[in-house]
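Minutes, project check-in
Item: structure for the 253-residue chain
Input as provided by the requester:
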Amino acid sequence: MFEYFRGRRPVFALDLPGFGFSERADRAYLPDLYVEAILEFVEGELANSAPVDVAALSLSCEFAALASLEQPELFRSLVFIAPTGFSANTLAASERVYRAASFPIWSQAFYDLLVTRRSIRYFLQKAFAGPVDPELEEYDYLTAHQPGARHAPLHFISGRLFTPGIRDLYAAMPQPVLAFPDLSDYGPSEFLPRFTREHPNWSMEFIDGTKAMPHFERTAETLAELESFFQSQDRNADVLRLDPGSVSARDTI
């Protein structure tokens, strides 16, 4: 997705705290941290840009939604791929689970069991309808074995990164949203179809032959849907623009 759009519009890919090349310190990884990171980037690096279009995957959709509610003027539209919060199988936050998983004596050993190659492949297979993308699998293994890599994931498995009542917050978003349902084994988006019918600013597209990673398994079809969605936002902006002579760059993060 990044390589495709970088020749068509300004594109930025964020490594959120605890992942990628970002800091992986032993700290509290909670939703507010990720919302703050997104807003700091948009308000800082993109301070002079028009409102941005955001594409997010899985749990990151919740962070993007919270950011768009906190500063709605910064966000033009959002694309959510396999967004969390639309399944009956919701992971509730458990301080007991976190304390047990992060106990210094065994937390690293426990984490190491979760990120073996075999374990990574097992979990990825739940998200893919066909073969797992080998480059993604290799990247997952490498990024999971960096210094401090365990800290953020241990917050995730204890449920501390999920926001209770997220569907009510999704419903409050004013921006147009394009959602691709999660059909993985983790918990399908059974509430998403009805939700999109009840909220006119939301639309849903399903890419045949995929589960939760349509941008990997059916890249061309997924990009076509995104192009159509972004173009519709461009047309709406043209209608609403007060100064016909002004031209604004659109940024996607």
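Outcome recorded: The CA atoms of residues 138 and 159 lie 26 Å apart.
No further action items on this chain.
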